[in-house]
Target: DNA polymerase III subunit delta
Amino acid sequence: MGAKVDWPNHERAWREWRTASGGTRMHHGWMLAGKRGLGKHDFALAAAAELVAEAGVPQPADPANHPDIIVLTYGPKDDKAEKAAAEGKPYDRARSIRIKQIRAMQRRLTTRPTLGARRVVIVDPADDLERAAANALLKSLEEPPQGTFFLLVTHAPARLLPTIRSRCRVLRFPPLSDAQLSAMLDAAGASSDPASRSAALKAAEGSFGAAQRFAEQDLGPLARVMEGLLDGADPAMTGRGELARLIGPRADRERLQATFDLAQAMVASRARETGSNARRGALVEAHSRLVRLAGEAPTHNYDTGLLALEIGTLLVEASAASEPADG
Model:
């Protein structure tokens, strides 16, 4: 297990969960809803461990290794990856949770739990269930075996089937404040450079997982250039050139994603702050185009320099200097 994280945004979820689990009829299906990086997986494992524990029965120290806690997430991509996984070697993961994983879980549910009377199935992220897998899971949610509970970790609840949502109670996980994020970054030993820390907090928008990734990327210089592009027209394209230099000619996927996320967060922040309807419209349009470009980048194999110029141009087009003088 990695270092234990103290999640200050879990207090309400724990109250609701423990009130329910202490009642006479615990609901069998739960959705753990909130953006990525809010500790929902950690909560699911800890809550599952509490639910399956029985007095006088020794329990594994790590809930992830508990025989009565089944965790479904991205499996091996193909037969070659499955072979590598079986041999304990690194392997490529699929981008979805597949029906064969649900079928394997359902076969396990035909047997009794190993250590006690309860079993928990964690699906993370439930957003990425294939359609057939989601329909198969629905059958288990409709007729759950005695003592079986489901925890569906979801970053985008609207992507789940309405019939799945209707059979689950919801635990919501709120974003973290900047003060909470900063304290958690300190506890994790992240960089304390003020500019990079400020950029990481802005880009993370309340997600500790995102803040950690951004802190590692040293986003301070990138943020300063982006602020300049959002403030001015950059007629000589010096700002865009500097953006391309900072991103780097051989930036990996992680670096590019951090750049996109930072740009989107900065544009969204400006849109919330502006009092001009025209400016807000331009910022909303820029944000939509950044989201679209970020989605295309991994599959279109764009040149990194051209991507940087396109990001910079979108920021310039949404800048205050681009707004008509008459508002």
